Amino acid sequence: MAEGERGDLEGYYFRYLPQKTFQSLSTKETTSRLRQWSMLGRIKAQAFGFDQVFQAYRKDDFVMAFFKDPNVILNLKLLSDSGQWITLGFCWFMLPFDKES
User: Fold this and answer.
1) Residue 69 has what DSSP assignment?
2) Percent of the chain surpassing pLDDT 70
3) What is the pLDDT of residue 61?
4) Which of 42, 60, 65, 75 has its CA 20 to 30 Å from the CA of residue 14?
5) What is the pTM of this model?
């Protein structure tokens, strides 16, 4: 499925928002603390939008739909054990999804 196409998992559609920035992660105080905790360069924030009103009682469906969505799989960055940033698609097989859903 091409990026931007609607996925039909659990009725949710997620889209990656690469233009969204998190300025609080680059303030002097934050970078100092991240460096102090050896986390500078090892943490990222990414934004995804979705097409429905969030309903707390459907939180499990929401989370499962998020991690199964093609746009999330192609764009969500994870830090590998080797210290390289990879997308969720490279480690998809490691997530414990219920095969019947």
Assistant:
1) -
2) 79
3) 92
4) 42
5) 0.70
